[in-house]
Amino acid sequence: MYVVTCVVVFAVAYLLNIVTITVGYHRGLAHQAVTLSPRVRRALVVAGNWITGLDPKAWVVMHRLHHEHSDTALDPHSPLNVGIWGIASEQLRSYERVLVGLARDDPHFTRYAKDLEFPINALNGRGLWWAPYAIHALVGVVGAVVVGPLLGFAYFAGMMSHPVQGGLVNAFGHAVGGRNFDTGDNARNNHLVAWLVLGEGFQNNHHHAPASARFSCRMLEVDLGYGFCLVLEALGALRIHRAALLPRLGALRGAGSSATLRRRADARAL
Ligand SMILES: [Zn+2]
Ligand SMILES: [Zn+2]
């Protein structure tokens, strides 16, 4: 029973972290593939950094830089530049560079945040980036003392799993897997990463149609993140832009709508 409890705690913490990032930061703030309700958007801006340890504004700006310069020398995290195993440190360095640039109002970075009316989180402006990690570690320690060490570890590992999630997507999603579209970069569809990181492994599909809330387009491609979008939409937390959804691959070819979709996606990419 103890081990089952630990697995459940890890799963809930892991999902809370990744849903905040993939639905809130990525599909919501970065690409506007879903429109968050004003209340949810406010909550995300205020609490997102505390939940994930990542500043929402800095995350979005770094991600938009990634789309603009995908797999070129200017990409903030491409395995073509630093190799698969270099991604972990590269994405951290790039995130810090973006955060410092935004704090200094550097136009090289602020030009990617014109639609983001909120500042970087006050924590990061004061050098307190470590506070969310410390609080989650404290909760983990309390859990370890009260219930058991495995439970404390499960909580902390799940809540602070974003470096692993991001590393898997940024490394293998641009290095290992098939391609449905000629995206002009090295974006790939990696099914294992997609299962682990709620659809984010389908980087090739996503770079083809960044404004699509659904990252899958073939029958065997499973995007659990889109499933969460559907549930959250039913709860009134967001609205999916269905006109921008990536059509199923067969329908895409049959309708000859690829150029239209790409124009629509490009318009909404930034
Ligand atoms: Zn990518
Ligand atoms: Zn994206």
Task: Map the helices and strands.
Blueprint lengths: L1 H29 L3 E3 L1 H15 L3 H13 L10 H4 L4 H17 L3 H4 L11 H4 L5 H16 L2 H11 L2 H11 L18 H6 L6 H6 L15 H11 L3 E3 L8 H7 L2 H12 L1
Antiparallel strand pairs: 1-2
Helix pairs in contact: 1-2, 1-3, 1-9, 3-5, 5-10, 8-9
Bound molecules: zinc ion (2 copies).
The site of one zinc ion (ZN) has 7 residues, from α1 and α3.
Helix content: 55-70%
Low-confidence stretches: 252-270
Task: Compute the average pLDDT.
Answer: 91
- Taking strands numbered 1, 2, ... along the chain, how are they ordered across the largest sheet? 1-2
Strand content: under 5%
Please give a structural write-up.
Mean pLDDT is 91; it is low at 252-270. This protein starts with a helix and ends with a helix. The chain is built from 15 helices and two strands. 61% of the residues lie in helices and 2% in strands. It has a two-stranded antiparallel ribbon with strand order 1-2. The chain has one domain (2-269). It is mostly helical. The longest helix is centred in the N-terminal third of the chain and has 29 residues, at 2-30. Helix 1 runs parallel beside helix 9 (149-159) and helix 8 (131-146) packs antiparallel against helix 9. One zinc ion is lined by residues 66, 70, 173-174, 187, 203, 207.
